[in-house]
Structure formats: C-alpha cells, structure tokens
Amino acid sequence: MAVKLSKAQKKINYDKKLCRLLEEYSQVLVVAADNVGSNQLQGIRKGLRGESIVLMGKNTMMKRTIKLHAENTGNKGVLNLVSLLVGNVGLIFTKGDLKEVREEVAKYKVGAPARVGLIAPIDVVVPPGNTGLDPSQTSFFQVLNIPTKINKGTVEIITPVELIKKGDKVGSSEAALLSKLGIRPFSYGLLVQSVYDDGSVFSPEVLDLTEEDLVQKFASGLSVVAAMSMALSFPTLAGAPHMFINAYKNVLSLAVATEYTYPQAEKVKEYLKDPSKFAAAAAAPVAAAGAGGGAAAPAAKEEKEEEEESEDDMVAGLFD
C-alpha cells in the first residue's frame, strides 16, 4: 500500500529533485505549457526519456528552490532562470543537442478545436468547397458574412474566408461553424520560450543559426572593425592590411609626383611616360597567338608570370 505524503514532504522531495537536476544539468529549455493536457505531457516525457527530463511545478516553488540552490552552492548563474518563470511554464533539463531536443518536443503537438474565448495563435481561413451541410445551416454563414451557394442540396463555400485573425478571441459563432465543418484549426504543445546554457540565457531562434550564418556575421563584424580602425587611424589586425596598402599607395604617389624614385616605382613612371609602349607589348603576344596557335602561348604565359612577379616585388618593397 502506497504511503500518502503530506504537502510538506512533497515540497521537500520537489526541492531535492530540482536541486539535483540543477547540479547534474547545465542546459535547460524553458517551455510554455498552455493548453497542454496531462496525457500529451506524458507522451512528451516518454519521447524525451533517456537524455532529457521534463519538470513542471508552481513558479513560486521553483523560484524559491533556485534561489536557495544558488545560495548554498554559490552558482549564481542559475538565478537567470528566475526571471523566465512567468506564466504556465515548465523546465526541460537536457544533456543532448538543444536543437534536436526542441525539434523532438515540437513533434508532440496535438490538434485542438477553436473553443469560445481562446486567443487564436494563428489566422484561421475557411477553404472554399462543399461543406456537406444542408441548406438549413446557412444562417451560420450569413452571420459571419461568408459567401455561399446551394449545390446539389448542400451548402458550398464560394471563396476562401479569413474567419479568425491571429490574436483575436474566438467567438461563439466562429467556434460553432468550425465545429460543424470538423475543422480543428489550432495545435498545442510545449513551446520553447528561452534557452539556458551554463548561466547564459538566449532566444531559441539562436538554435536555428548555421555555420554559414555564423561565418557571415563574423565577416560582417570584421568589416565594421576594419572600417572603424581606419577611420580612427588606430591599428588593429583587421585594419592593418588596409593601412599598409594605403600607405604604400601614398608612397607610390609621392614617387610619381616628385623626382624621388625606387625600383618598384620605375615601372609605374615608365608606363605614365609612354603608355603606348606597354599597349604594343601587350598586343604582340595576342597577335602571335592568333598566327602561330599554341606556339605563342608559353611566351604569353611567361610574360604574365613576370608581370605578377613584378607586382609582388612592388608590394614586398614596402617592407624592405
């Protein structure tokens, strides 16, 4: 025969369990449990069994236990959970991949009818087509201004109609019509609101970020750092390459504008004096390739390699 525990003993056992979970697990999903039944919750527990534990309870009790646990262990990071315990929420403690756990929880949504007074979580649209209702039921459609016609002794909806908008309360007429049509527009399950990971709290949308997203965000931040570095003339690893290149351009400009010269600037000066000389040299390999076929290709390739080496020398000269 099972021994019936007192309320005080139940609270003690609950405190011990929550403290144990806070010690064993560093990852917690804070989930909203509105309109989730006990059978549905039991199914979620079975689906997560092995790597995750679902814990429900009164917010005041959970807050009290978390605060006492933080005082006793010195782990102040768990206090970030206290502000998240608002409304009908629960905690999922896990050691698995947070994204996979969230996806597993999302599988256990259950369809539900539109009950009177509920706040619609989504837009509800009644599709066109034959409803199977007899003509005596047209009063429901007339009240809601839904265009219909009688087709083969049944009511047929002519065009799709947005019956309920997201955030609106479900009225008695809307609920009755959806019930007659057999439409269960809403689905409910545990909804992840926040993610706690070893003292840090962030939005569940972060779990959807891919490696490509992270690389893109890092590159964007790096470009901002480089721009600020150059604007402030403050050297950083991100801005230094651009500073060196700009400095070399300034040195080259001075050499071109004055009589001062150095080996890497000679070619630039020579080009500025007589650009046609370089145009003729560039056109010669092309003409030779057209006349001699593949014979001129190695020469053109060799000339291109020499130009690349010359450009490398120009950049390298900056650090001589």
Automatic annotation (TrEMBL):
Gene3D superfamilies: 3.30.70.1730, 3.90.105.20. Residues 304-314 have a biased composition (Acidic residues). One of its GO terms (molecular function) is large ribosomal subunit rRNA binding. SUPFAM superfamilies: Ribosomal protein L10-like (SSF160369). It comes from the Eukaryota. Residues 114-183 form the Large ribosomal subunit protein uL10-like insertion domain. The keyword Zinc does not apply. CDD domains: Ribosomal_P0_L10e. Residues 292-320 are annotated as: Disordered. One of its GO terms (cellular component) is cytosolic large ribosomal subunit. GO terms for biological process: cytoplasmic translation; ribosomal large subunit assembly. Keywords: Ribonucleoprotein, Ribosomal protein. Pfam families: Ribosomal_60s (PF00428), Ribosomal_L10 (PF00466), RL10P_insert (PF17777). The keyword Ribonucleoprotein applies. Transmembrane segments: none annotated. P0 forms a pentameric complex by interaction with dimers of P1 and P2. Ribosomal protein P0 is the functional equivalent of E.coli protein L10. Belongs to the universal ribosomal protein uL10 family. This is 60S acidic ribosomal protein P0. It comes from Punica granatum. The gene is LOC116199154.
